[in-house]
Design goal:
Shape: globular
CATH architecture: 3-Layer(aba) Sandwich
CATH class: Alpha Beta
Number of strands: 7
């Protein structure tokens, strides 16, 4: 999957925030993370393609932020959506056991998550669309979602009307801050 993505979306020659201690990250989270996500970060680092942002926890480490606390703060957005926006949150949220763990966003409004149930490489992918709610897709990895997005063949993005935002050419842009 990553090889096909590399052909369509060349990675940066010197990716930013691509390397670090995954053991420390996973210890902070309290779980291993999906292998394909770690491979993606190792290849591309932190960055975005056409509004699809993939976050690297190594950005937080580089800025002296506590990884677990930062991830908890990010995930707490769902509590805000429920409290202030009247959104029904039908999943537990990290740090709750089996909770949603965000790892990316699309257009600053929609969130890419894993549902931390079972083995990390089998975690369901849960997409939160601000207008249409939650979509759970079992068997879809982070890298597969990115590949589907940049090839405009994502059933999920087609359904939510977001696929046309990925018209060619697509270029990965590194987050350098």
């Amino acid at each position: 999957m990553l090889e096909e993505l590399r052909e369509l979306l060349p990675p940066p020659k010197s990716p930013y925030f691509a390397e670090g201690d995954w053991g420390a990250i996973e210890k902070a989270v309290g779980s291993r993370l999906p292998a394909d996500y770690k491979e993606f970060i190792g290849t591309y680092g932190a960055g975005w393609v056409k509004g699809l942002i993939i976050h690297s926890p190594f950005v937080w480490v580089a800025h002296g932020r506590e990884v677990r606390k930062t991830w908890e703060n990010w995930a707490s957005m769902y509590q805000d959506y429920a409290q202030y926006g009247g959104v029904e949150i039908t999943y537990p949220v990290f740090p709750q056991a089996g909770g949603l763990l965000p790892f990316g966003s699309l257009a600053d409004a929609n969130t890419l998550n894993w549902l931390m149930v079972g083995e990390p490489d089998q975690w369901p992918f849960v997409y939160y669309d601000r207008d249409d709610g939650f979509f759970q897709v079992n068997g879809l990895s982070a890298t597969e979602f990115i590949l589907e997005a940049v090839t405009q063949r994502s059933p999920l993005l087609i359904r939510t009307g977001s696929s046309e935002g990925f018209s060619p050419p697509c270029e990965f842009r590194s987050f350098t801050g």
